[in-house]
Amino acid sequence: MAQRGLCIRNLELARNMLAIQRRNVTSSTQDIQTGLTRKEMYEMVREQQSFKKGEICDSVSVYVRGGAGGMGYQRKNGTGGEGGSVWLEALSMYQNLNHIHHHHNRKYVAGPGDNANTNLIRGLKGEDSVVEVPPGTVATDLRTGKVICDVDREGARYLLQGGEKGGCLVNNYISKRGEERWIKLVLKSIADVGLVGYPNAGKSSLLSVLSTATPTIGSYPFTTLKPTVGHMQTIDRKMVVKIADIPGLIEGASENKGLGHVFLQHIERTKVLLFVLDVQGFTLNRRTPHRSPFETFGYLCRELELYMPGLTKRPIVVAMNKMDTAGSDPEYDQFLGLYKSKLSKLIKVHSIVPISCYTGQGLDQLQDLLYELKYKNKRKITEADVV
Fold it and tell me: Residue 129 in contact with residue 87, Cβ under 8 Å?
């Protein structure tokens, strides 16, 4: 009976070893190719497919953890290596946060320090982990709400979480696990030109005809739910202008109504504000009054000033859209007259261009104007412009 029991245990052990070998082979194959399981790969692909061409991820939360310190060696007073740190670095090769949104589990964990031993009296430092972001990204601690850093230039590097010290005489040669925290990354600088307007004014249509982006276009308000960036470039590709289609604003956006702050944050650092107005005016629904193009422009400027004082002092271009509709010429002339008589001294507008995304009217003039504003009259963003 004892011999039979031993044979059964040996058979079970052999089966377990075979199963472990199969799992190791499978996992190693996945690590070499993608580093993801089939389920994780499916989730990642599904998330990537949720973004259309040009759409960006402007806000994402990541988990960071510093590296644990290495164990000390008490016999020879050996000191364990310090744990690695997690850094935030700005690289201009990135234009948005999509690469972090699709990062595996959105976790950045630094490596642990080496343990001290007979041959290594002082352990080596653990490997650092780097979160690469585009310039203009703001990092905030999710628990405290405190701003950790504002990455405003290429190559800037900030510490998100340091590693733990290694084991030594002070801590009885015992190291600690690395501290962890959740970081929220928000991108505020995404384009040279920001499209500003009420819902259904034709911002997405204008972006689609000026650039290679393919935003969602529809005849109903709030068609655009995510910021979209398109690149407008000349034939020789020597001049490129990045245009951001910001989801439509509503009255009270400065008070964060309708996700106002989420959308307005993308306008903070744009160099040029391109107001897209419907020449026929705007009505959100049956319960809201009809706004003329002049009233629409005034309310939009008011929301921008309430959100960030001085924002309307930047170069402003007004694109009067849908000029192909009936009765557009009298409305356009009325807008010009009201602006010159009532608002020209308060809000300086660089140009007012009548356009039609349907017929192509005025689009060439608008393109030349945007190229001129970026390359011939370059405007540096000063400290007063950035909060």
Answer: yes
